[in-house]
Design goal:
With 209 residues, this protein is mainly α. Helices cover 79% and strands 0% of the residues. Helix 1 packs antiparallel against helix 2, helix 1 crosses helix 4 and helix 4 packs parallel to helix 8.
């Protein structure tokens, strides 16, 4: 039952990240779209939904069974992003301009080198841990909001790679190939490395219980 709850929560998290991706694709102003994308992560942290990039950083502090929880989360996130992509594709907001935009985004990502994807994913992983952990540990509501929205804006405007967001974009663009799967795997590895950098530092120097 607990694993089912985790899976459903992960599906909802993926759905909300896809919601953020939808508003980003709907905006002509990239900065505004990047800011509005933050509603996805904000919903995840407020309702404590299971998001892979929000959980991976805590591996150094968890028991081995946490790995199974991460796997369930990744699969659930994937299902959630594909679900919302299919929903959006059957609505009036799925316009030609949106199709062209997401297709162009998918092609840019898939034509990149794997090493570049890895580096950009590591950068994103660092930002995601900062966002989630600051929201979790901070007391002030203003700091919590800033902690969520600013890192999201930074990773989007910088072109960093977020594996869950890209699941949604690939689903929207219908670019499911062997290269897509490899790219998602590399993004997962990169987000994982980035997400664990600060926690490993904390663990080594006992800065966090």
């Amino acid at each position: 039952m607990e694993q089912l709850r985790q899976f459903v929560s992960a599906v909802l998290a993926g759905f909300m990240i896809g919601m953020g991706g939808t508003v980003f694709l709907s905006q002509e102003n990239k900065a505004l779209g990047a800011c509005m994308f933050g509603v996805g992560l904000f919903t995840v942290v407020v309702f404590r939904l299971q998001l892979y990039t929000g959980k991976i950083g805590y591996v150094p502090f968890e028991k081995p069974k946490y790995i199974l929880e991460l796997i369930i989360t990744w699969i659930g996130n994937f299902c959630g992003t594909v679900l919302i992509a299919k929903c959006v594709q059957n609505t009036r907001i799925f316009t030609v301009s949106m199709t062209d935009k997401v297709t162009s985004m998918a092609e840019l990502k898939l034509n990149d080198s794997l090493f570049s994807i890895l580096i950009l994913s590591i950068f994103c992983g660092i930002l995601m841990f900062i966002a989630v952990d600051t929201f979790k540990e901070s007391q002030g509501s203003t700091i919590k909001v800033i902690a969520v929205f600013v890192p999201v804006m930074v990773f989007i405007l910088s072109g960093f790679e977020h594996v869950i967001a890209n699941m949604y974009y690939f689903a929207m663009a219908n670019t499911w190939t062997f290269d897509t799967i490899i790219a998602l795997i590399v993004m997962t590895i990169g987000n994982s490395i980035g997400g664990m950098l600060i926690p490993i530092y904390q663990r080594l120097f006992r800065l966090k219980a």
